Write the structure tokens for this entry.
Amino acid sequence: MKPHETLRPVWWNDAVAPAGALEMIDQTRLPTETVTNTCRTLDSVWQAIKQLQVRGAPAIGVAAAYGVIVGLDEVPPTDATWLAVLAKVCDHLATSRPTAVNLFWALGRMREKGKSLGAIPWSTARTTLLKEAHAIRDEDAAMCRAIGNHGQHLIEDHSGVLTHCNAGALATSEYGTALAVMYAAHERGRRFRVFADETRPLLQGSRLTVWELQRAGIDATLICDNMAAVVMREKMVRVVITGADRIAANGDAANKIGTYGVAVLAHAHGVKFYVAAPSTTFDLTIPDGSHIPIEERQPDEVRSLGGRQTAPADISVFNPAFDVTPARLITGIITERGIISPVTAENVQKVLAK
Ligand code: MRU
């Protein structure tokens, strides 16, 4: 197995007594330490999502699906109460982060599976719910592979690619979305150089993306976020590929803060800008990106870097974790069902219906 194929950030470990537990790579410790975090309580799952120990839209969804089992196991319900407890656990996990729609999608699927079971004993329901969480994980892995296959031709031999944040294996069940395209091109023997924005304030680009790419043997170069314009002007990249946290019906796409700026720069320099995301990242209930809830995070994330204070302690801070790139700036959206291009509401419908 190739190194990137062994990278799985979140899984269920049956061997943890008494009935198994959710485990994940604690991504706040990368790249210097690879530490496993075992979640045995609902609160520990909630905290892991909130604090970005597990992060990236699809990975959050997978963690939440397994988190439902953890929450139900914490105080095992009776045959009469498990369905009500399931609803409460899902409601609570849904408050952990607001932007990535995969979280709500996965919780919705667990809820619906529970409802479809009706009045059956808790032990039987648990087996089915755990199976459903495994299915969510496995289906995500398959979608990521398909995204890679659909998008790989967009990376030309001896070209440059730019990415923002981390949309790799670490952000999904495995393989990634934006990075899946790169892994698939690399597997086909193409040589290219990836420029990764470091992605302030929490540095997913420098802590996670270049670590992942290096591990896979892909030529990766780290840049500060404010260097992307020069890289484009000097024609060092031909294409930008990022992930997404929620895509509206018209194709407007929310992703890590700074993505919108990269899209504007790409447009100004005639560089193609692609978003790679599975169908589970689309929210067809909202017409456009203005309806996407944007998470605002703690001011200290901006006032400090690597635990060191870098600004006056009481300076006012604006810290949105995501921004929305309008569909008109997106060349195409690479999904597991094909590429949506040009990005219009009609084409979103058409490709997702495949
Ligand atoms: O705050 P994060 O690290 O969860 O933000 C992650 C991103 O913005 C990713 O680009 C996105 O979730 C796509 S993951 C395949």
